[in-house]
Amino acid sequence: MSDDLPLPDLEAQPPGGPTEDNSGPKTADDLEAVFDVPVSVSAVLGRTKLEVGELMNMRPGTVLELDRRVGEAIDIYVNDRLVARGEVVLVEEKLGVTMTEIIKSER
Questions:
Q1: Which residue range or ranges hold the Flagellar motor switch protein FliN-like C-terminal domain (predicted)?
Q2: In a domain, 72, yes or no
Q3: C-alpha angle 78/84/85, rounded to 5°?
């Protein structure tokens, strides 16, 4: 008796018959089903550690030293997963973020 399992037929059609031709380039329209799914996006400028007493003594104007330098890339998280790095930009008197590097996830 062999312990080898047969490999699936990758050319076989899924149950219910043939599907659309997926050989062309993907577009935003292909993701339309998930457009309304809410996600949490965070842009992390830097981090620091404080004791609760230090936090309680902070007042408006207090400078908080972070672990990043000016001009260094910031981390962009979607649902607490790092997805990109980017830069802070000014857009019509508001702060924004532009992505400069997409991080490929290891699944």
A1: 33-103
A2: yes
A3: 125
